[in-house]
């Protein structure tokens, strides 16, 4: 542990921590765009700059490690002025369409501009102008809104390990896209949507059929039902209807999802979705209760076992089940029914 | 060893090569064989002599005769008169070589008199493509000494004692950097050389690599031994084909001679070297961007700390020095740190190579002891400003530096003095400006460069430099307001203090230093809509002086937009200002100088 002074407050912090981590411990909020603790420190957006005594320039809190005796200010006049100017530079090159932008209410740029009282860019210079790339089935890439924090590219490379997107050109013309700027459809994107999830602004957005504002929704934490991994996620719900899904930080997924978990939620509210078991009677499926369904299954298993022996039965388990459920399934077949005919869909 | 009575040295630097020195060499070869002189006269294609202004250059020893602006047709005369009959062809010599009809040797010419060549020691002296010539000039003796007589700690101590500071621009003490890398923990360490010289008008590193590549190779092997690395990389820009070519030849020869590779000089020490080509991005001269580029990643800087000495190439401790820094090392080992520390000022030791350009008589490459004044460099070595114009400012440090005015010409050049003046040493570009240069336009020029070369990673540099450029363009177009100057200054300070790497942190320097010394020029552009130097086109107007006009009508014929009215022979011509595109064609065409620009 070492001692540092933040905003005239002496504190003991782990010597391996960054200024940002040390400040978080004290409940001091430092704005960030490009920071993500799962990724290699990037230091690109510069919004987290703080004043460190003795340093020639302002230092980024997200990349600078603390040192014994360090004296720093997270909200001095110089820091506030610099952050405001950085926000002005960002908003200068960003559409002012918050009124219709679907990210409104969940947009870090909007939040910080409010916090630092930035209404518009003061320079009246050129703005970038890119065609929106909507060639991916699940999301759109609107580079006019991108602030180049680089999180999407880094998540794709460092965590998802697909390497589908990168940055192209340099300087003012830098932008994010698929190789050779050919459009997302020509990339090896697997549509996991993790880039969309980390985008702090409205540059990468899900193609949503619903119109909603984030402040009209509530989040429901749940476990993804698609497979046995157990990814944690937040369903974004408006009027009892899922309108978006955001990955949550769970031990199994660490804030990542796959294409199904991220985008495959429309079945939940689909009118064709089965909500009760169906039992075929007189050649037609009829709705039934779970008790009726279980009774029928038990009955059929018993009959089959009596007439043809236990090996006439086979169990096929699903990858959507957890390990524990799969264990119980084979236990049921081996110990209760008495057959080794048990397999799993992931082997097919 | 063969002995020759004369040596003909032909400059093979980029400047002289592009003005035809290769042809000259071929003709010399033919002439020498024609007169059967091949066994008596040795022809050597060397690196850069430095005085590029006078190229192509041929120097003949033992006389030290300095032939300048040599043409192919001069070769026969030089061969017949000088080499055959022993008569120096005085009318082909460099103008300053003949004083009172006496011929002076190259070393007595003003351009060379004040110079002291350490890094450029062998440039223009040896054939860089022949390792034996380098060895004959004490080459690889320093490496031999280090490997057989010194411990790594001793080598680091020598470099520390010498006071050598990084010549790439930052001026960080080289010995300390070596010590940090030596101390860093790692199963593998690397040594890298930054040869991604990118400042406009700078060609120091290129000349060292073209003229004396073995000096860099030897120094890197020494550094490898000192810090504990067995692999080195030279990152050189692909736009330097001659340097790359000669470097590769030098590496191959060193390997052949056992001076690179396994068990060098029969010791346990092994060291290998590879070239990595850069694709021309200025930012790749920044050390962490350079490392990314060597690793095959996009050339963008990484946050520091961790510094390369701790986590460099592939996260392993890496020593990264610039070409010129390395070029000093063998000399420091051989002559001792005290000798090196004896040159220069208190905090800046040794010599520095500068590329002198702009409004200066002797454009070229020079190496002077630290502490030489700007005045000495510009007016003695550089030969002053052409056409009797007045000196206005000198830009040091390229686009990252700033301008220094006439008031400070007697400042001794060293790292700290230049920083105190709001400029910096940089890698050694020195661009001289005279009274005809508009300082707002100069700032715009450098900003244009940095906007182009910003990598786009961090917000202040990517977005901020662009806005600064837009404001400067507005001002030079006469649309600037006083508020623009305030915005410019505030933005410049923000970019300086919050950018990720050296490129962004120094990009506003040309603006801040011109604002500091030439605010009156900004004010003239903004308040009076006037460009005092007469450079900014939008602020100029062309006027026909009625009394001087001979009514010939040539101007009206030349005008591409037809905005000059008058009647030939009868009525003086007049320019319709609102349509004039200010191309200047009329002024150029007027035989009577009746058109003025204001």
Structural overview:
The complex is a heterodimer of chains A (348) and B (598). Chain A is an alpha+beta fold. Chain A has 4 domains: 1-127, Ubiquitin-like (UB roll), CATH 3.10.20; 130-207, Alpha-Beta Plaits; 216-271, ADC-like domains (N-terminal domain of TfIIb), CATH 2.20.25.90; 309-347, no CATH class. In chain A, 24% of the residues lie in helices and 19% in strands. Chain A contains 8 helices and 16 strands. Chain A has helices spanning 19-25, 77-92, 108-115, 151-159, 194-198, 259-263, 290-308, 323-337; strands at 2-6, 9-13, 49-52, 59-60, 71-73, 139-141, 166-168, 175-177, 204-206, 218-223, 232-238, 241-247, 278-281, 284-287, 315-317, 342-344. Chain A has a 5-stranded mixed β-sheet with strand order 2-1-5-3-4, with helices on both faces. In chain A, strands 10-11-12 form a 3-stranded antiparallel β-sheet. Chain A has a two-stranded antiparallel sheet with strand order 6-9. The radius of gyration of chain A is 26 Å and the shape is elongated. The model of chain A has no long low-confidence stretch (mean pLDDT 95). Chain B is α/β, with parallel strands linked by helices. In chain B, α6 packs across α13 (323-335) and α7 packs across α10. The radius of gyration of chain B is 27 Å and the shape is globular. The N and C termini of chain B lie far apart (68 Å). The mean pLDDT of chain B is 93. At the A-B interface, α2 of A face α17, α18 and α19 of B.
